[in-house]
Every structure is written in structure tokens, then in C-alpha cells.
Amino acid sequence: MNFVLLPFFSFLVGIVVGLTGIGGASLITPMLIFVFQVPPAVAVSSDVVAATLMKVVGSIKHWQQQTLDVEVVKWLALGSIPGSLCGVEILHLIRQTGEHNLNNIMLHLLGVALLLVTVLALIQMLLLTFFPKLQLPELPKFDLKTKLGRLQTISIGAFLGCIVGLTSVASGSMFALVLIAFFRLDARKLVGTDISQAAILLLFTGLGHLTLGTVDWGLVLPIWLGSVPGVLLGAKICQIAPQKPLRFIIYSILMMVSLKLVY
Q: Which residue from 41, 155, 177, 219 lies 20 to 30 Å from 127 (Cα-Cα)?
């Protein structure tokens, strides 16, 4: 039954990722834990490896459509790659205390990261939707033509990369908020840039998680089977689908899931 349901659910998640640039690990990891009763450590590591191919395929599609910003992707990756490997190294240190501790710690880390991402994204969306004229303090825009702008981009990439290495969450969701807040990317390039930087980040994070020995290829392959065609379909219809209603639905689901993980 799992070999039927897992590719199907992964196909739906792939569509969401292709459409919005978010929701991959945020949806698949909790799905593995709650629906398929997978231990948290195995769920996180398997999802990181599985999500890598999905994001790579999606990024290639967006690159062909020229709906991404190459410079932003490059400088974020310079920070996020070492940051994610640092997160994986922390997991190695935690694992030395015992497998049971690793699963419990990762379960709560996942819940807290997911809750933080969802709350921030939901607040931003609600403010922009219901109070479009509200004048909020504007965050500084990162100028990649300057050394300061590049350093800021690398630094924030490293911080978020560490969170991804620890939990598999935020490779799309949290980076999407950064792209909106600090780079002012238009909607046309936001999704493609988000997926592309996540593809590079997850490629190295996945290699790190392979060293933990918690990757289950019996989960990875069915997820690939469903998510790859799903993300291709999602990327194809990204340019015509309404983004706000989709994101609101996703964030509402993630809010419930994250609360369940935390408590």
C-alpha cells in the first residue's frame, strides 16, 4: 500500500513545489512521520535526498523559462552550502548520545523550524493582503554589486543553510521570505530563484545526510517517482496559477502540522 500512496502523495507535493517554490520538506517529512510512521531521523534524511532531485528538475525547468536570478542563487549558495554541512555535523554530534535522543531532538527541531517559517510567512501574507497600504519599516535591500551586499547574502544563506541541515525544513519556505524581503524579486522570478538555490543547497545537504546512515532508499525512490513529474507539472502552470490562495492554503496546513510536531 505504501508503494502506491507514497508516490501519489509525493506527486501532489511536487505540484505544490513547482507552483509555489515551497512545501517540499515541510509537507513530505511530516507526511512520512505521521502517515507512514517513519522515525524522524530517517524521515528527515530520506526527504533531504529525495527532495534534491525534485528541486534540481524544477530548477532546470525554470532556468529554461528564464524565471530565476542567477546572481542571487550563486551568492546565497556560497553561504548555505557550508551552513548546511555545519548543521549535519551537529546531527553527528547529537547522534553520539544515542539514536533515541536523535529522533526526539529532530522531531522537536523540525516542529519549531516549521512553526517559525509558517508563522512568519502567514503574517507577511495577511498583512500584504488585508493592509496593502500599511507602511511597515522597510528592510535594507541587499546589493550584490557591493562587498557588503555579498557578505550579507552569504551570512543569511549560512544561517538558513544550518537550519536546513538540521531539519530539512526551510530550503524553500524561509529562503522565499528572504528573497522577497531583501532582494525585492518580482513574482515571475521568485519561484524559480527559490527552487534553484534550494536545489544546490539540498545537493550538498543530501551528501551530508548520507554519512549519517539514516537514509532509507525504500522511501527515496517512491518519492522520486511521484515528485519529479509533479514538480514539472507545477512549474509548467506556475505562470498562470494564482499564488496567494495557494500559499494561504499551504501555510494553513503547515501551521497545523507544525503544532502537532511541537506538542
A: 155
